[in-house]
Amino acid sequence: MNDLLPDQSPVWQYVESTLSELFARYGYSEIRTPYLEATELFSRAVGEVTDIVEKEMYTFDDKSGDSVTLRPEGTAGTVRAAIQNNLLNQPQRLWYFGPMFRYERPQKGRLRQFHQFGVEVFGIPGPDIDAEILIMTARLWRQLGIADSVSLQLNSLGNAASRAAYREALVDYLQARREQLDEDSQRRLERNPLRILDSKNPQTQELLAGAPCLLDFLDEESKAHFDGLKALLDAAGVSYEINPKLVRGLDYYGKTVFEWVTDSLGAQGTVCAGGRYDGLVEQMGGKPTPAVGFGLGVERLVLMLETLGVLPEFLNRQVDAYLVAVGEVQSAALAAAERLREDLPWLRLQAHMGGGSFKSQMKKADKSGADYALIIGEDEAASGQVTVKYLREEQPQQTVALEALAALLRE
Ligand code: ATP
Ligand code: MG
Prior knowledge:
The protein is an alpha+beta fold. It has two domains: 9-159 and 219-308, 2-Layer Sandwich (BirA Bifunctional Protein, domain 2), CATH 3.30.930; 318-410, Anticodon-binding domain (Rossmann fold, 3-Layer(aba) Sandwich). It contains 15 helices and 16 strands. The strands form three sheets. It has an eight-stranded mixed beta sheet with strand order 1-5-6-11-10-9-7-8. A five-stranded mixed beta sheet has the order 13-12-14-15-16, with helices on both faces. A three-stranded antiparallel beta sheet has the order 2-4-3. The two termini are 45 Å apart. The model has no long low-confidence stretch (mean pLDDT 95). Keywords: Aminoacyl-tRNA synthetase, ATP-binding, Cytoplasm, Ligase, Nucleotide-binding, Protein biosynthesis. It is found in: Cytoplasm. GO terms for molecular function: ATP binding; histidine-tRNA ligase activity. It catalyses: tRNA(His) + L-histidine + ATP = L-histidyl-tRNA(His) + AMP + diphosphate + H(+).
């Protein structure tokens, strides 16, 4: 669980504002749900036999003996909130941002408290909305300057019946070759065989080359949905790769599943992942409601932006002007700073406090990244003036009346 230190927060603020503005441009509204939920919510929604529920949840009893869990993902809580608050009488396009908690082995791009942006859309059954959220994410990558470093993997899991039929065929195939599977996959064979498909073990992958293919088992409706989605993405110019072995680690998915992956992060290559979960709302006690969404890992996204060197230069500048106050001028300096903040609401002004020599204050002004040092010494304080020194361009300094300063800076 990381602290987010001041030198990192500008990058996070940039990512957060880019995403929230993008979602607003597509007509999505923000939802905030509690970080703590009843444990049962996740075991039911995410699935008992998933990595998350079996071994990754932060679960404890509260003071009244109820089992509660720090949310490991955002979909379950969003669905609960949407049902309880009657949001599902009409289509909803929602987004959220916040911390998620999973007890995993920490490593690069994998933390125990991490952060996700997520999108959940309710009440729209067709592939057009699957296409919209993928087109929106493609726009996000372009906006952040990483479109060349991510690619889209796409698959369809079909409906529950076709998944069950496929599951049987896969188990038959693997059962006959059981001794060639590693321990993890053997365990999954009984409990969650589809997860074997995304095993990282090369020997298992070799074995899977001859296995039955999920896409051959798709029911007509899922196939039409998948074909529709592919056609819409083709028309929109969003390229993708069909990966018939792409399954997701959560039980609620059916039909469309996808991952945006990168090879710039080593093993933790999935930045954004999601899919359709038409059955979940009903399973959680709501009326049948089609749904589709994704989660996007912010730590991985930030790592990517840093690794690829695509962060905008303006992030290094957190203040525009630095007020240098030399001598017994505290009251004049505070008044000048407030006057400027009154006149120029966009100005980011850091005022030096605590005294010190002119030289040491000018060093701090330079280090702050500000474009201007605004200097008030005893002469300036007496005459109601300020000296403006340009820190980033070759320009002679000038001394102006406090009343004229706002106009000069605006210019
Ligand atoms: P992975 O296969 O990497 O474990 P996942 O399938 O568990 O990912 P999801 O539950 O779909 O991931 O979460 C969506 C996104 O959240 C992931 O694609 C990833 O970017 C991010 N994410 C998931 N777990 C972590 C973690 N422990 N630390 C940081 N980011 C994470
Ligand atoms: Mg995981």
